[in-house]
Design goal:
The chain has 217 residues and is α+β, with helices and mostly antiparallel strands. The chain contains 5 helices and 12 strands. It has a 6-stranded antiparallel β-barrel with strand order 1-2-5-4-3-6. A 6-stranded antiparallel beta barrel has the order 7-8-11-10-9-12.
Length: 217
Amino acid sequence: MFTGIIEELGEITAVDWADDAARVTVRGPVAVTGARHGDSISVSGVCLTVIDQTADSFTADVMAETLAMSTLDGVAAGRRVNLERAAQVGDRLGGHIVQGHIDGTATVLSITDGSAWRVVRFSLDPEHAALVVRKGSIAIDGVSLTVSAVGGGLDDGWFEVSLIPETLQATTLGDRVVGDRVNIETDILARHVERMLSLGYAAPALVTQTESSRSDA
């Protein structure tokens, strides 16, 4: 479990490819501080498990499902990544609840610079459209952000976030250009609500109240 508050910018230093998997080594002195075998570290929003480490780097396996769903499908040595260690019980939740289980990717559609911020517009696939709302939370490459605008339809949907100078400097989002892909993770509560609605679920309390109202009438 993560909060979407990036601790440091790391760098992919090595990638060993297999037929349907990869083993990546990531340089991140802060991320490996206190880390142990089996710990979770968010790499640009993707939760990876430490299988080996040195004083300033760690190695993790990336399975086929993760490669298919994320921007790690074409990862190479030299790429900068956002790193965050798993949250500890009792920590302040500075961002929002982020699992590191991404929903897929989005593409940068436009970038608009303001006097002290940057508005970035991303594509929004039909399967994710119902999970993204204005003023709601979303994780982009592991960064906890607030959706500032949503628009378009199912076939041409988009959403925007407004980035402050700190976010632009401390994360890889400051390097993004039009056409880049990013990992997105929608809000976990929205996912559960969507699942319940797809199954036709109605909350017991709401059903009881509705039935009671009918009987009183």
